[in-house]
Design goal:
- This protein has 374 residues and is an alpha/beta fold.
- The chain has 8 helices and 14 strands.
- Strand 4 and strand 5 form a beta hairpin.
- Helix 1 packs parallel to helix 3 and helix 6 runs parallel beside helix 7.
Length: 374
């Protein structure tokens, strides 16, 4: 079932609940117990410490500040009929998985009833969604046995630094040049008119597909001339820009690879929301084999925020679930430079606060900007 149809079906189900006048019970934590709230009753509780809620202070901060809604990511328990690994290359198995995910989403969202909420993202391949909701709706989710995790939706920012020689790519790209591979690059925006990125419209011979999750359209081109919003252009050039000898530019690491451009920036500073990034990763699973000769085998995100000083595998259920499904789908190379930067800093590598070669949007200097690959 297509996304638009799914949204309609969920909205229709909610309309039926509302039109019948049914009272949907929600819950509020009072210390060790739960009590039901009448629809419309104000939530007065303190941040819940249930195991399924992560970083409750961030979740409750907007509500404490007087806003009516807060933004969360909700991960559901795996549908029993679809537990275990999915054969993503089998069209029937993939369709069954997506149908099970949609049903799980519909059940939980249907239980919210009249509690105020606005759906942001429904994911096709993992049992999860993001939503802006009231404290009343949040309490309902906390009381729902089908909810495995609730966490805040956070913003990420562009991360990009030094170049090909630093990752020793010059020594191997003569043999391993990306032939037969597509790289999904999740970033701010992409100037696909650049000669080393196809030099034409969209799609073209280099950037063969993609989507704009920021504006919800099919064109990942930058909105305006803000250089931060062109961050995806140098990232794409570093990863798979065509060979050329222009000033300092010598071509991408995997210059024969194709690119899927997935735009996720929504603000002037290039920041991106978690749920939009996850929607782009979800898209990669669905569209992995759009090009039989260049399947998506790599996903790149030159983005980040915050720091970890210990094991972080369990820090986010939504990210962990998505990455597990990507790997299961055969997208096993997931590039996130923040982790590599931290490792290299611990090893004594010095990172300049400025972009070598100047403005990162100056695409002639694509290879002068670092992309650490792990």
């Amino acid at each position: 079932m297509e996304r638009g149809t799914r949204r309609f079906a969920i909205a229709w189900a909610l309309a039926v609940v509302l039109s019948t006048g049914a009272v949907v019970a929600v819950a509020q934590s009072d210390g060790e117990s739960w009590r039901h709230l009448a629809v419309g009753e104000a939530f007065t509780g303190t941040p819940d410490t249930a195991a399924c809620m992560r970083q409750p202070d961030l979740i409750y901060a907007p509500l404490k500040a007087g806003e009516s809604l807060t933004r969360v990511m909700v991960v559901l328990r795996e549908p029993e009929a679809n537990a275990g690994k999915v054969d993503w290359d089998n069209a029937g198995a993939a369709a069954a998985r997506r149908d099970a995910v949609w049903r799980a989403q519909s059940v939980v969202l249907g239980r919210l009833g009249r509690a105020e909420h606005r759906i942001r993202r429904l994911y096709d391949n993992i049992p999860a969604f993001s939503v802006e909701l009231s404290a009343e709706a949040l309490a309902a989710l906390l009381a729902d046995d089908n909810v495995a995790s609730i966490e805040p939706v956070q913003q990420r920012e562009p991360f990009l630094r030094q170049g090909i020689p630093m990752i020793n790519a010059s020594a191997v790209r003569g043999t391993y040049n990306g032939q037969g591979v597509a790289i999904a690059i999740i970033d701010a925006a992409f100037d696909y008119t650049h000669p080393q990125l196809g030099g034409g419209g969209f799609p073209n011979s280099k950037i063969i597909g993609g989507y704009d999750f920021a504006d919800e359209d099919s064109d990942p081109f930058p909105n305006g001339s803000n250089s931060v919003l062109s961050h995806g252009t140098p990232v794409a050039g570093i990863a798979a820009g065509a060979l050329a000898d222009i000033d300092d530019y010598i071509g991408g690491v995997a210059y024969n690879a194709k690119i899927y451009a997935l735009k996720v920036a929504q603000t002037a500073d290039g920041a991106q929301w978690d749920d939009d990034i996850l929607a782009a990763l979800d898209w990669c699973i669905t569209h992995k084999n759009d090009s039989p000769t260049h399947p998506i085998l790599v996903a790149n995100m030159s983005l980040g925020a915050g720091q970890f000083f210990s094991a972080c595998d369990g820090a986010s259920a939504s990210w962990s679930t998505m990455v597990a499904n990507l790997i299961n789908a055969g997208i096993k190379d997931i590039v996130v430079p923040l982790l590599a930067r931290m490792i290299l800093e611990l090893a004594g590598v010095d990172f300049s606060p400025e972009y070598p070669g100047g403005d990162p949007s100056t695409v002639q200097n694509l290879d002068m900007v670092i992309e650490i690959v792990v």
